[in-house]
């Protein structure tokens, strides 16, 4: 939520740094869980190095990747984190990853402290509108675009993902099978 926006809002950077004594740096191997579906989100994470995915298991038992997070991204199961309800998804590292984690209660303290800042509303509106725009673009693309178009969008907007993320996770994220993704990649290679 905060780490990506520290440069844009200097007051936020100062407050984040004030909370450094509550931040824990974790070095994790690939395939480690930060949060399990059904658990309560007790931490906010900032990715210093590495990659994390958010996924859920569908009613049919399929693993569905919802989002990828990389250096500079902040993450948690926000509904679980903010409302103290069970998480709808799991957070898992995809490669050796370093995260900074801060306990929920300290993030809530930080938000309380931010309320006294004149730029508080600007910060919150910017952060939440930025995320909302991103998720709406993905949602609209998922409804409107073909799998080929969704893959092309992914390559255009985040070209590093295919080099860092296993094909079956990308296929899951795009809502297709790994075989279908292989066909798409072959088609693009033949252009």
TrEMBL record:
Coiled-coil segments: none
InterPro entries for this protein: cNMP-bd_dom, cNMP-bd_dom_sf, RmlC-like_jellyroll
Keywords: Kinase, Transferase
Occurrences of domain Cyclic nucleotide-binding (ranges): 28-111
Gene3D superfamilies from the UniProt entry: Jelly Rolls
Transmembrane residue ranges: none
Keyword Transferase belongs to the record: yes
Entry protein name: cAMP-binding domain of CRP or a regulatory subunit of cAMP-dependent protein kinases
Gene Ontology MF terms: kinase activity
CDD domains reported in the protein's UniProt record: CAP_ED (cd00038)
Pfam families linked: cNMP_binding
SUPFAM superfamilies per UniProt: cAMP-binding domain-like
Transferase found in the keyword field: yes
């Amino acid at each position: 939520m905060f780490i990506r926006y520290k440069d844009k809002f200097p007051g936020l950077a100062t407050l984040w740094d004030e909370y450094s004594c509550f931040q824990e740096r974790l070095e994790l191997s690939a395939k480690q869980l930060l949060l399990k579906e059904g658990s309560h989100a007790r931490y906010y994470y900032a990715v210093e190095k590495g990659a994390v995915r958010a996924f859920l298991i569908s009613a049919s038992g399929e693993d569905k990747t919802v989002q990828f997070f990389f250096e500079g991204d902040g993450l948690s199961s926000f509904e679980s984190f903010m409302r103290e309800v069970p998480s709808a998804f799991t957070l898992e590292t995809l490669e050796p990853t370093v995260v900074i984690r801060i306990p929920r209660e300290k993030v809530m303290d930080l938000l309380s402290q931010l309320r006294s800042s004149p730029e508080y509303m600007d910060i919150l509106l910017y952060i939440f509108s930025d995320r909302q725009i991103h998720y709406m673009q993905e949602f609209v693309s998922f409804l409107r675009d073909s799998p080929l178009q969704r893959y092309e969008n992914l390559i255009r907007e985040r070209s590093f993902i295919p080099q860092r993320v296993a094909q079956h996770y990308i296929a899951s994220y795009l809502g297709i099978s790994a075989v279908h993704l292989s066909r798409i990649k072959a088609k693009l290679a033949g252009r």
